[in-house]
Amino acid sequence: MNKGALALLVHGGTENWSPQRWKSRFDAVCEGRPVLLLPDASFDPAEVHYAAVWKPHPGELAAFPNLRVIFNLGAGVDALMADRSLPNVPLVRVAVTDLTARMTEYVVLHVLMHHRQEPYLRESQRAKRWAPKSQWAAGAVTVGIMGLGTLGADAADVLKRLGFRVAGWSRNPKTVDGIECFHGEQQFEAFLQRTDILVCLLPLTPETRHILNRPMFEKLNRKSPLGAPVLINAGRGGLQNEADILQCLDDGTLGGASLDVYATEPLPVDSPFWAHPRVVLTPHNAADTDPDEISKYVAHQIERFEAGGALENVVDRNRGY
C-alpha cells in the first residue's frame, strides 16, 4: 500500500531553515514515503496526508484535501493559528529533548551573563579599565520564569541547581520540585514582586500579546542586587511591547534585557535594539530546531498514528498552544 505523502513547506530564509537541508533529513527517515518540497508542480495535492511546516503562507495548507496531520517544525504555533483557512486536523508542536536542552542553555547563559555583570565587564575590557565591582552570590538573586511547560520547567531546574532562587508563573497551577510556583491573575503580582531576572517563555496567544509592558516591569523587585531588574525574552516577539522596553531601559525601570525575538523578524536595521547599550540581542536562535532530531520525531509520530496510536503534543486550538 502506498504511504501518504509528506509535504514540506519551509519558509525561513536563513541557513538553519534551508529547505533542501530539511528535505534531505526527511528523505533519510521517511523510508518508502514520498517527501515533497513545495513549491512542486509535479504532484497531486490529494496525495498529501501530512505536512511539516515552518511559517507557511496563509492558505497554503488548505490546498490539501486529504490532509490528516500538520507538524509545526518550531516551538511556536501562533503564526499557524492566525491562518483562518487552516484545515481542521490535528496540529502537532515540537517537543524533543534537543530543543529543550538548547533553550535551557540559552536561558542559563543569559541569566549568568547578567548575574555576573558581563555587559559591564566587556565594556571595561574595551575601555582597558580595571575596575571590578562587588559580585553577589547566585542565592541573592531570584529568577522568575513565565511559562512552566517543558521548556520553563527544565530551565528552572538547572538554575535552581546553580544556586539561584527560582520562581515560576503559569496560567494554570503547576508543580515543579524545588520551585516556588504561582499561577493565574491573582498570584501574578506576588510573582513579579520577588523577581530580579524575568525570563519569558510563554506561548503567544491573544491573552499574552504585549504582556511584557511597563506596568509589569514596574512591579518587578526594585531592591534587586543587580540594581534594577532584567528581562530575558526567548518566547515570541508579540509578547513584548517594544516601545515600553526601550523606555524602561532608558529610564532605569529595567537594568538590562536579553532579547531573542522581536515583533518584526528579521529585526529591521533601524531598530534601536541593535545599538542599545543595555540590550543583548540574538537573532531568534535561542533553541534552533535540529533537522535530525525533528525529522525522526515527525516520522515516528506518523508511523505510530498510522498504526492506530495517539499523536503526542497536539495543540489545543482553544488555548492556542
From TrEMBL:
Domain of life: Bacteria
D-isomer specific 2-hydroxyacid dehydrogenase NAD-binding domain residues: 110-286
Keywords associated with the record: NAD, Oxidoreductase, Pyruvate
InterPro entries associated with the record: D-isomer_DH_NAD-bd (IPR006140), NAD(P)-bd_dom_sf (IPR036291)
GO molecular function term, any single one: NAD binding
SUPFAM superfamilies from the UniProt entry: Formate/glycerate dehydrogenase catalytic domain-like, NAD(P)-binding Rossmann-fold domains
Name assigned to this protein: Glyoxylate/hydroxypyruvate reductase A
